[in-house]
């Protein structure tokens, strides 16, 4: 799932080299941390958080098939 988040984020930002994704696995959950350059933060979050919500929806749909809960944190 981290690869999907990285692919989506790199497609959105101006500086794709600065995109970093790390995953932490638990028994029933996965925490995905998405790190982007500060100037690209708005492009990943979007107006009123719409893009971030869409990314979370896509990843949550994939995680549902695996019976996992996913949390995506966007940090700069």
From TrEMBL:
What does this protein do, in the record's words? A probable RNA chaperone. Forms a complex with KhpB which binds to cellular RNA and controls its expression. Plays a role in peptidoglycan (PG) homeostasis and cell length regulation.
Which family does the entry's similarity section mention? Belongs to the KhpA RNA-binding protein family.
Q: Which Pfam families match?
A: KH_KhpA-B
The principal location of this protein is cytoplasm
- This protein's species is Filifactor villosus
Compartments where found = Cytoplasm
Q: Give the matching InterPro entries.
A: KH_dom-like_a/b, KH_sf_prok-type, KhpA
**Name this polypeptide is given:** RNA-binding protein KhpA
Q: Which UniProt keywords apply?
A: Cell shape, Cell wall biogenesis/degradation, Chaperone, Cytoplasm, RNA-binding
State how it assembles.
Answer: Forms a complex with KhpB.
Q: Which HAMAP family match?
A: KhpA (MF_00088)
